[in-house]
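Exercise: predict the structure of this protein bound to 8-OXO-2'-deoxyguanosine-5'-triphosphate.
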Amino acid sequence: MIEVVCGALIQQGQVLIARRNYGSAKGMYEFPGGKVEKGEAKTAALIREMKEELDIDIQKVQYLAESEDQQDYPFHLTCFLCFSDQVPKMIVHDDFIWTTPDHIYDRPFFKSDVGLVEALKKVWPYVSQNE
Ligand SMILES: Nc1nc2c([nH]c(=O)n2[C@H]2C[C@H](O)[C@@H](COP(=O)(O)OP(=O)(O)OP(=O)(O)O)O2)c(=O)[nH]1
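Solution:
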């Protein structure tokens, strides 16, 4: 089982979803993230991926939810709420949308993330007010 981490980046009462411009899921929106490297802690992987993919330093990380699915390979996905006051840059994505959990699935978004988005909806009133 491949371990994958992703981050729901919260800024100004909105969450970031980003469109992949590479690989078999090109054109899909996602929470930025990627595979955990051997011996790496999940939160360290998340901080590294957010730096590599968005060029931001994460100031606070909070566990949100997890799921399992299979696309190119079976994977276990852990999602964290992420907080940073830096502006993300487009490096591996070709579109950014700042949205709210109710509108994430208005766009093509990974079906594996349904449970993560439901968890985000539950905490949203607290998260968006206590950034
Ligand atoms: N980053 C990210 N990946 C997700 C999400 N939902 C979801 O099913 N995935 C899947 C897509 C991939 O099958 C898997 C791993 O993500 P990844 O970004 O490392 O994908 P990849 O295999 O193209 O990575 P790479 O080889 O280019 O490093 O997780 C999500 O919200 N964010």
